Amino acid sequence: MSTTERRVAVVTGAARGIGAATAVRLAADGRAVAVLDLDESACADTVERITKAGGTALAVGCDVADAAQVEAAVARVAEELGGPTILVNNAGVLRDNLLFKMTESDWDTVMNVHLKGAFLMSRATQKHMVDAGFGRIVSLSSSSALGNRGQANYSAVKAGLQGFTKTLAKELGKFGVTANAVAPGFIVTDMTAGTAARIGVGFDELQAASAAQIPVQRVGRPEDVANAIAFFTGDDAGFVSGQVLYVAGGPLD
Prior knowledge:
Layout: E1 8-11, H1 17-28, E2 32-37, H2 44-52, E3 56-61, H3 67-80, E4 84-89, H4 104-132, E5 135-140, H5 152-172, E6 177-184, H6 190-199, H7 203-212, H8 222-233, E7 244-247
Parallel strand pairs: 1-2, 1-4, 2-3, 4-5, 5-6, 6-7
Helix pairs in contact: 1-2, 1-8, 3-4, 4-5
């Protein structure tokens, strides 16, 4: 367990995948972690992993696209764990389709969860960060921010999160709050498994094909992303803000 001062972290979309790995890593670094997801019961496994290792975790159900739920969730975290000074905006969904097949619902759902959710969570937690004179906001972008066939909604929202991050860095820096983004490449998660199913290939086949295109010759794991997030949330990263770090196994074409 780290000797870093105990701080309270909120990780959204933390029931599985990158969010779960991040919650576990931050807890190992000595953070008390609020594990947020749409279904509170789905957070049980992540919370158990943390508490079994001697950490502190709280499961919280919250729709990050709903302002009232966000305010209530952050208030609960502040009451039960303390004022949150670390936020990881990880919650996300896919509604992939080619532009001519994409519905308004496909577009709105992705925009609301990723971008509106990051806005609402950042707005609700920043007051605790400002009061503490310390804050770390990390939002999950993606290599898809550079454009990806069949993901007009997802690419747009992930690019938007990069602009959002740079703006927060400028607005909140004077209060001791940094804002950065992590942009994963191919990471083995339920989400990428769903992509394989959507395009009609086996997940193992998709991983092998992806690894062949990555300079380090392997696909990423949730822990790879969690490690990068842990750096951005640490006390030693106070002079790093407004940055986008691609965790993709090498330069992107």
